[in-house]
Amino acid sequence: MSDERLLVVSDEVREALDRGRPVVALESTIIAHGLPRPRNLEVAEELEAVVRAGGAVPATIAVLDGRPHVGLDKEQLTRVACEDGLRKLGHRDLAPAIAAGAGGATTVSATAFLAARAGIRVFATGGLGGVHRQWTRSQDESADLHLLAKVRIAVVCAGVKSVLDVPATLQRLETLGVGVLGFRTTEFPGFYLSGSGEPVDWTAGSAAEVAGVLRAQDALGGPPSALVVANPVPVAEQLDPALHDRVLAEALAACARDGVTGQAVTPFLLDHLVRHTDGASLEANVAAVRGNARLAAEIAGAYAA
Ligand code: PSU
Ligand code: MN
């Protein structure tokens, strides 16, 4: 099957790419599995609007009826947000889903891969997958990290959720050779919180500076790898740090007490966080993603200029 027949790139995205106009890829797992309904569809539409307001074309990515789509229309976006039982597809799931004619929401690993294949250089998401706290026992480490070691794309994110092992995740990114650039921060962001307490080696002060790093990557050539642009949620919109620390500790204790393990751990902890912060963790989550979409549009614009 030829490339063009396999990847369905929307007319608007295709035209923008052909003309060298800024394009921002957006993932769909956050819509299908990361946010509650009906807020998820509102956020999906808001993110596209934020990218447009920033002067770029949004390209939300998902697999529909066995075909990877880059750029969704309203009806397709609604399917991703509302269809029951939509699968979560990492990069390794793409081929089986295509062969089976199945659909699914794409994680960071699948989205980054498909976006890069389509020729998109900038991608916005909420948080990256990472190394789980029980990794020494479970070996649970997101495939996001490994895929980002292999594709040339900038991923604008607010760090990784504090339910993960943040220092171990940063160590894996280092080992895998994935660059991490703090945006106006010398600290890796803490997703719900503006900071995680972990340092980053490099800081950019503007979208133009980030675009300069992307151009340097292009000029260097060699094996491709991603650049993680770590963009903190604004302090005014972060979750109250004392509340965060207390509820996370309670959630981890409840998890151990109830014997929750493996894949069930993350949904359990996130659900606990949303319920025991009266939805404040959800608002911080949405604020983080919104800020990332805005910055990604700016970076895409600076890169295209
Ligand atoms: N982090 C979030 N929200 C999300 C995800 C991560 O704050 O929705 C999603 C992303 O799509 C990410 C995926 O790529 O979870 C990682 O899943 P796993 O750990 O199974 O690789
Ligand atoms: Mn996992």
TrEMBL record:
The active site is at E27, K161. Mn(2+) binds at D140. It comes from the Bacteria. GO terms for biological process: nucleobase catabolic process. The keyword Transferase does not apply. Keywords: Glycosidase, Hydrolase, Lyase, Manganese, Metal-binding. Its cofactor is Mn(2+). Its EC number is 4.2.1.70. Catalyzes the reversible cleavage of pseudouridine 5'-phosphate (PsiMP) to ribose 5-phosphate and uracil. Functions biologically in the cleavage direction, as part of a pseudouridine degradation pathway. This is Pseudouridine-5'-phosphate glycosidase. It comes from Streptomyces cinnamoneus (Streptoverticillium cinnamoneum).
